[in-house]
Write a structure and sequence with these properties.
It contains five helices and eleven strands. The protein is of the alpha+beta class and 286 residues long. Helix 1 packs across helix 3. The protein is globular and about 60 Å long. The chain starts with 15 loop residues before the first helix and ends with a helix.
Length: 286
Amino acid sequence: MENPAQWKLQTLVFDNKMQYNLQQQHHAAQFIALVGHHLITQKEDDSNTNMEFQTVGNILIGNPLENGLRLGMRLIDFKLEIIDSNNKVLSGISLNSKTKLQIFYELKEELTKYGVDVSKLSYDLHYEIPDYNILDDKIFSVDEKYLRENAFYRHNANLVLKDILSEYDNSEEIKIWPHHFDTGSIINIEKNAKGEPTNSIGLGFAISDSMVNEPYYYLNFWSEQKLEISSKINSPGQGKWMFPQWQGAVLPISVINSGKSPESQKLIAYEFLREGIEKIKELLNN
């Protein structure tokens, strides 16, 4: 049985094959977002579309529908699952070798079998993600080796973020947001009399983007006050600040993978987050 408290050793180089399998996971996760957007009451922060990671099964799980059912996606097995309120799997839909449109209509049929009114479920989302050349009429084509390594990224991010957040008050739940496909949370450092955050720190794990060409851990911060940031601020662990391009810091996955044991890799990620948070708190308190 998998130990949710154990870091999984990351060994594969993040190359084009790894990237394409991660991009396919990103697209597949949008089915959870579709269900959340169209079949769950819309929330101001769009949290009805987000999901959480469960270690057992390496699965992303969306928010519950009115009848308690939830839609999940297994990252390694690469399939959707309809799950009841007791965590029992009612139905599964394999994704590999199918187009997104095929999967969408199959999902509607399966949800209907379990009493879900899918009349409002459409294929449209309220945001755009990169197409990665994964077009609606192109079949998914994945490799389990790369899906597994990408699932390790999610597992490890969930693990180290939990450790970090346990050390701070006023932190929010760890969630995966389908738009950017990041695993993240927020620490509210200070609030006003109305209970609204005035200083906060964002932290998490992100997939490759225009800023970093590989997955990375990140820290960013926000304040209602204008901050003066010195370029001489010390680096957070083995990460680097991105000023003035971005108000935060990053730690690429390749740096973490320089560690050759689970313990050393986790320590690299932990020290980046812990040291970065403390440096940001100093900035916010000045």
